[in-house]
Design brief:
The structure is a single chain. This protein is mainly alpha-helical. The chain has two domains: 11-96 and 192-202, Recoverin, domain 1; 98-186, EF-hand (Recoverin, domain 1, Orthogonal Bundle), CATH 1.10.238. 65% of the residues lie in helices and 5% in strands. It is built from 13 helices and four strands. The chain has helices at 2-8, 11-20, 25-38, 46-56, 63-73, 83-94, 98-109, 119-130, 135-138, 148-158, 169-177, 180-186, 192-202; strands spanning 43-45, 80-82, 116-117, 167-168. A two-stranded antiparallel sheet has the order 1-2. The protein has a two-stranded antiparallel ribbon with strand order 3-4. Helix 7 packs across helix 11 (169-177). The longest helix has 14 residues, at 25-38. The two termini are 15 Å apart. May be involved in the calcium-dependent regulation of rhodopsin phosphorylation. Binds three calcium ions. This is Recoverin a. It comes from Myripristis murdjan (pinecone soldierfish). Residues 61-96, 97-132 form the EF-hand domain. Keywords: Calcium, Lipoprotein, Metal-binding, Myristate, Repeat, Sensory transduction, Vision.
Amino acid sequence: MGNSKSGALSKEILDDLKSNTKYSEAELCAWYQSFLKECPTGKISKEQFEGIYASFFPDADPTAYARHVFRSFDTNADGTLDFKEYIVALHLTSGGKTLQKLEWAFALYDVDGNGTISKNEIHEIVKSIFNMIPAEDQKNLPEDENTPEKRAEKVWEFFGKTDNDKIAEGEFIKGVMENKDILRLIQYDEPQKIKDKLKEKQQ
């Protein structure tokens, strides 16, 4: 049965995903069958992707974050995610190696795709992440991190930038790798319920 499922997924894509994600061949084939059931065209639209995130966050507003995540993984800018782009997205947002995650994080924060990050872009993504934190949890945040503005300012100050400066990719990755506090501020760790749902879809 495994071979027939593998046949539905090209060997080139299968080998590429096995090399670049944490998933096994059996898992990838199971994902592919599930993917085709939900998306018979072989593509996920931005609206479908936002719907997936909405189901994970019924008590918050993940729309803006989902839109930015979708943009960062729509590598050919055709307004859809194919199976390969979708699996890479799942891999990097639920696991992935640190360098890979930081390269993706840079793409996420580089909203206009010009190769640098501005203070406004930091604020835009941090705000979209903040919208996914339940109100009760927001009350427990440290005083200097309890608004999107404060969190964005804290990140920007770490890099020692003035308001009109830019951050290049190498500088961003080096800075975040050297400071776990900044890593915590720029990313969103999915709650356990999301990880559980991802496992359910694999089965």
